[in-house]
Amino acid sequence: MVLKVFFPTCCSSAESGILIGRWISEQNSAVILAVVHFPFIPGQVKQYLSQVQQVTKIKVSVLGSWSNSQQEKEESLSKFLEDLGTIFAHEPWIQISKERDSKFWSCSTLQKESNNSKEEEIILVYYDQRKVMLSQLHPPMDTTTERKADDASKLATVFDTVANSKILFMTDRYDDGPIKLTHWQSDGVEASIIVELLKQASVPACLLLTFLLSLISVVCKNRMLKYWPLSFLWSKLSTCEQLGHRLQHLQIISSSKKAQNQTQLMRKANIFVSLLIDVALGILLMSWLYRKNRIGHLADTLIPVADRVAKELQDLLQWLMGAPAGLKMNRALDQVLGRFFLYHIHLWISYIHLMSPFIEMILWYVGLSTCLGLTVALCILSDIIALLTFHIYCFYVYGARLYCLKVYGLSSLWRLFRGKKWNVLRQRVDSCSYDLDQLFIGTLLFTILLFLLPTTALYYLVFTLLRLLVVVVQGLIHLLVDLIDSLPLYSIILRLCRSYRLAAGVKFRVLEQMHGKPLRLLMQINPLSYGSVVQMYSLPTYSCYPKDSWTSLCKKLFLGELIYPWKHKGEKQD
Amino acid sequence: TSAVWLAAYGLFALCENSIVLSAAIFITLIGLIVYLHFVKVDQESLLIIGSLGIQVTSSYASGKESTTFIEMSQVKDVVINEAIHMQKVIYYLCILIRDPQDPLGVSEVVPLFQSSKPRLDCLVEVYKSCQEILAQREMAPKSS
């Protein structure tokens, strides 16, 4: 079988020595982790390797020898290297040698107990040690399930080996130890001051945050707030939902136990970055709003806007009370409905005028809460829209109920008209013999309802359209909030800047070959595409989109049933 | 095509405002760049290494390269498939991926050379070389 040797690119300029790494016998491949230079004592090398093995749980052993000769090939050196093979017994013993000016390396193996005399083919695969160590292969291997060794992906074992041998890379050449190694960090261990400082500062910060959060949650769970109608109010306002969601996020970040595996770590990082950006944008918005007393302007324009909306509604009702679009309405019913709604609007306008002196102050204080995040600001906007158009919602409910009653009445009387009845027990339509007076009254009522149908239907149609408009606007705002909530910003930035961390696979490039020398390949990391990054790491949100399909929505509209556009997770389904 | 579009937009927009003209040119250029980067495939290549796996690369006109690597343990076989499209029969080369649960089944079929669509004689040559390499991996027994 073909023997594959994974060689780190950083070791290609190293001095001669012996190779240490891991031998994967099922795949007939050797992963080389470092080169140990002369002089060394074999006993110490074996001791060091057993120490490393204990810590990393990977079978690290001496695999072969490496000679990088600056001068012409020396016969004694090659004999010495072969003798080393007898000291460190490893099967097969790999010998790689590189001449000074040539790009091509020669690689051979020594097998002591082999029966076949055939020359084994060798493939040299170069890999960048640092990138392979830091990267994570997607989809992540499930370590809890029982899998046979040959089922496991070959590359995953290679990546695993390098990632787990971090301890091997901790000694650099400036350390005074019995063994001198060459690997990617042998010029000095990498560390950055900022990261270390942050790590030190994060522990007390986390403790403080947990304490504050527990206080807030105790306050929120206070029994007084659970009584109706306050609990009803909290569940309807989307701002409270958003705040609760963010609180949950903060709890996840500030919990003191470390992330178990990579996915949890990424999720924590995503939540943290998303929260940070949210608060930053919110503060930006707040500074823009308060700069030129824009809040005052906003409050000043709010009342005239509400007035204008009410005036438009009044005009609409006047139009409906006349002959809208050339349709002829039933005058009496028209007048009744129109006057009822007009009075309603009158009540609403007086209520707004009552509130007007306080609007500016309320808005000012509410605007302060935008510093909690841009999502909170958008939720507040959505709630304000809902409150301002509350009368449209009321009208919609009235119109819908009237229409619904009418449709049910009509359908039941239509059945009577034909001589049938709805059997509640059997849930079907049965024939029934009615008395004459029942039939008479029934037909009379049916005719009345039928001729009053266009009027009610028109009012219902108009108010439903208005309500749908408001629902669409609110829906767009919620969509935006959801987008900001669930976008994994940290993962996207990671994919942009350090694309080798998220790997979908590898790609090989064939380097120059010469006949007689082993095949050389360069292994590079193939990063994940942006779409799969977003899909894999997007955070869960609290709202679920309407489960009604378009047909059931149309059916509900036709029958006059009320539409509830959003159901939040955790609400009882009725 | 871009010259035709530019001329058409130019003629259309000259009657109105010059900003429309420049906007049309801008949009056409952007569209061309997007097309070259995401749609037009310059070259497709297949690399088979007997013990490692199969690598499929397609390079686009703007220089972007997209690669997929399939490990040898996942590959069941490489075959030429026939498909009936409208009034003719087309041949394409594809890789059969092994199903982890069912050792005899195929979980996925990956078609190759989708944009260059070589004809049957080309495909047969590629197929023969692939089969040579794949046959070697069956032949070599696992030695410890």
TrEMBL record, chain A:
Statement: the UniProt record of this protein carries the keyword Phosphoprotein: no
Q: Which domain of life is it from?
A: Eukaryota
Keywords, A to Z, come to: Membrane, Transferase, Transmembrane, Transmembrane helix
The protein's matches in InterPro entries, at most eight in alphabetical order, are given as: PigQ/GPI1
GO MF: transferase activity
Residue spans crossing the bilayer: 201-220, 271-290, 336-355, 362-389, 395-417, 438-462, 468-493
Q: Which GO cellular component terms are attached?
A: endoplasmic reticulum; membrane
One Pfam entry name: Gpi1
Whether Transcription counts among this entry's keywords is: no
- Coiled-coil-forming residues are none
Q: PANTHER family recorded for this chain? A: PHOSPHATIDYLINOSITOL N-ACETYLGLUCOSAMINYLTRANSFERASE SUBUNIT Q (PTHR21329:SF3), PHOSPHATIDYLINOSITOL N-ACETYLGLUCOSAMINYLTRANSFERASE SUBUNIT Q-RELATED (PTHR21329)
Q: What is this protein called?
A: PIGQ acetylglucosaminyltransferase
Q: What is the lineage of its organism?
A: Eukaryota, Metazoa, Chordata, Craniata, Vertebrata
TrEMBL record, chain B:
Q: GO CC terms on record?
A: glycosylphosphatidylinositol-N-acetylglucosaminyltransferase (GPI-GnT) complex
Q: What keywords does the record list, in alphabetical order?
A: Membrane, Transferase, Transmembrane, Transmembrane helix
Q: Mind listing the GO molecular function terms for this protein? A: transferase activity
UniProt record, GO biological process: GPI anchor biosynthetic process
Which pathway does the protein contribute to?
Glycolipid biosynthesis; glycosylphosphatidylinositol-anchor biosynthesis
Q: Which residues form the Phosphatidylinositol N-acetylglucosaminyltransferase subunit H conserved domain?
A: 45-114
Q: Membrane-spanning residues where?
A: 19-38
In the UniProt record, the signal sequence range is none
Which Pfam families does the UniProt record give?
A: PIG-H
The domain of life for this entry's organism is: Eukaryota
Report the family membership.
Belongs to the PIGH family.
Protein name (Swiss-Prot/TrEMBL):
PIGH acetylglucosaminyltransferase
